[in-house]
């Protein structure tokens, strides 16, 4: 059992501020009702984790300040996600793999066997994303909107109040008010698709609200049941304007990207990106490590027929950068000129770069099919390298802000090492290693005898352009064996790199947010 205080110490307490002065008065007046709706959702999520958790959570949060209270507040219960959800306190109950979404003691095999013995219609309901499985003379599926009816009714009432406040802002607020009312209605009816479609279509709103059952990570039994999460955001208008400039400059950015002869890029350009500040979150979105970006909904029908939104959470990104990225860059580089603005545009252009470069080969085959299991590492390295390349080659044009080479390199290294701490062995880790090893080979980065990185920013432009050319060439034409050879050469950490990452142990790995709302 890990010491819970030591686990918490890895997460730096951070106030998440946001500027509310730009919000219209009706929207500002609606914030308490919206918070109430999110708090109602929080209760549902606690019940999803364990039906006895809401009472324990209330008791601990009403109790004395200290490790247990902080732990419950941040991880939403006594379980330590850094130790496979093992209980972090003596006497705490074990976390069930199926949480409270399945009967206690039901194994995945038993569920498969018993559900296979039911009628096709009942089987479909048992395996639905939005039902709880219970014992009742055989396995029974209970709809979420029935199981959590009391909480959902309170949430719907709060959302209708919020809609009424928002309407006071006049005709321009009608879209948001109608969305809030639709969300209220569909939550209690258990119709998630129509509200998600309306959310994707909602544009130019001063706030964004996501709430409902979405991700299925909570369900470790079969990975099917969706967990409730809620997030309330203020839209960042200044960054929104910068984004529109980049959208307008997209053809120019695409032209700066290598597209080897015969290959074709994807059509359709950019998925809609929204830049926001997080005001409040609840349920799964409030638990442990916070997302700095997401892309919803997951429903394939909505994605195919209506689309999706890509959301970048500026204040969370900035807090992570200041609390983790900057100290990490100072530790590896000595003095560092890393800054949040270049880092933000690097992340933004990473997303843009996924849509640029080869998507189809000369024979018409999609690049991901041609490269198979090697694709993700190469594609993530391409998106990072493409972002750096666009910042270096187009800074000051096509909506891309201009930054100096040293500032860009230091900010990039901050993000790279922050990410490499989370592990070097999955696709993102392999992508990070490709980038680092390439920059080291071309002399942009080198280790000094003290184990610090020495950089030559003046060599960055050429090295990045060459790596991007190579990655696009691999996507456009490499055989699987060639791609494997490239990954074998560049995808391994050196002992110096492993030592440097191990030396970052005292720097927090992430933030523990405090909201002002
Ligand atoms: Zn990516």
Describe what this molecule looks like in 3D.
By secondary structure, the protein is α+β, with helices and mostly antiparallel strands. It has a domain at 236-272 and 308-515. Helix content is 52%, strand content 13%. A hairpin with a 5-residue loop joins β2 and β3. The protein starts with a helix and ends with a strand. Zinc ion (ZN) binds at residues 350, 354, 380, 383. Zinc ion (ZN) is lined by residues 350, 354, 380, 383.
Rg, nearest Å: 24 Å
What is the total tally of β strands? 13
Number of helices: 22
How far apart, in Å, are the first and last alpha carbons?
A: 35 Å
Largest sheet, described in full?
5 strands, mixed
Low-confidence stretches: none
Give the overall pLDDT as a whole number: 94
User: Bound small molecules, which ones?
Assistant: zinc ion
What share of the residues lie within helices?
A: 40-55%
Please state the structural category. Answer: alpha+beta
- Largest beta sheet: strand ordering: 6-7-8-10-9
- State which percent range the strand residues make up: 5-15%
Q: Which outline best applies?
A: globular
Oligomerization state of this entry?
A: single chain
């Amino acid at each position: 059992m890990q010491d819970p205080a030591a686990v918490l110490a890895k997460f730096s307490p951070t106030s998440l501020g946001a500027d509310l002065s730009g919000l219209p008065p009706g929207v500002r007046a609606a914030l308490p009702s919206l918070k109430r709706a999110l708090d109602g959702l929080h209760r549902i999520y606690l019940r999803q984790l364990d039906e006895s958790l809401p009472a324990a959570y209330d008791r601990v949060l009403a109790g004395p300040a200290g490790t247990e209270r902080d732990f419950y507040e941040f991880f939403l219960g006594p379980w330590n996600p850094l130790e496979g959800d093992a209980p972090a306190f003596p006497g705490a109950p074990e976390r069930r793999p199926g949480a409270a979404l399945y009967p206690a003691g039901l194994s995945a095999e038993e569920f498969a066997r018993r559900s296979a013995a039911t009628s096709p219609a009942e089987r479909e309901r048992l395996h639905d994303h939005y039902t709880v499985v219970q014992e009742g003379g055989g396995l029974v599926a209970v709809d979420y909107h029935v199981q959590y009816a009391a909480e959902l009714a309170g949430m719907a009432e709060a959302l209708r109040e919020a809609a009424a406040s928002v309407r006071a802002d006049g005709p321009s607020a009608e879209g948001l008010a109608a969305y809030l009312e639709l969300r209220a209605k569909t939550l209690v009816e258990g119709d998630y698709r129509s509200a998600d479609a309306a959310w994707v279509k909602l544009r130019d709103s001063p706030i964004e609200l996501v709430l409902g059952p979405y991700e299925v990570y909570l369900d470790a039994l079969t990975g099917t049941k969706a967990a409730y999460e809620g997030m309330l955001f203020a839209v960042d208008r200044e960054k929104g304007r910068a984004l529109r400039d980049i959208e307008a400059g997209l053809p120019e950015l695409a032209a700066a990207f290598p597209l080897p002869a015969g290959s074709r890029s994807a059509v359709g350009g950019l998925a809609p990106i929204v830049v926001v500040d997080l005001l409040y979150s609840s349920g799964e979105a409030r638990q442990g490590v916070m997302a700095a970006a997401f892309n919803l909904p997951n429903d394939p029908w909505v994605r195919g027929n209506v689309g999706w939104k890509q959301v970048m959470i500026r204040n969370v990104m900035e807090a992570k950068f200041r609390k983790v990225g900057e100290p990490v860059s100072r530790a590896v580089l000595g003095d560092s000129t890393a800054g949040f603005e270049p880092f933000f545009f690097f992340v933004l252009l990473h997303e843009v770069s996924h849509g640029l470069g080869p998507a189809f080969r000369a024979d018409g085959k999609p690049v991901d099919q041609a490269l198979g299991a090697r694709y993700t590492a190469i594609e993530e390295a391409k998106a990072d390298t493409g972002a750096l390349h666009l910042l270096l080659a187009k800074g000051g044009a096509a909506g891309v802000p201009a930054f100096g080479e040293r500032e860009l390199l230091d900010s990039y290294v901050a993000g790279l090492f922050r990410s490499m701490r989370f592990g070097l062995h999955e696709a993102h880790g392999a992508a990070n290693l490709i980038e680092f090893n390439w920059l080291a080979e071309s002399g942009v980065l080198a280790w000094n005898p003290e184990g610090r990185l020495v950089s030559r920013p003046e060599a960055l432009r050429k090295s990045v352009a060459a790596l991007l050319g190579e990655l696009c060439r691999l996507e456009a034409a490499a055989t699987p064996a060639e791609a494997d050879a490239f990954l074998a050469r560049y995808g391994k950490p050196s002992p110096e790199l492993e030592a440097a990452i191990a030396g970052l142990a005292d720097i927090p790995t992430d933030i523990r947010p405090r909201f002002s709302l």
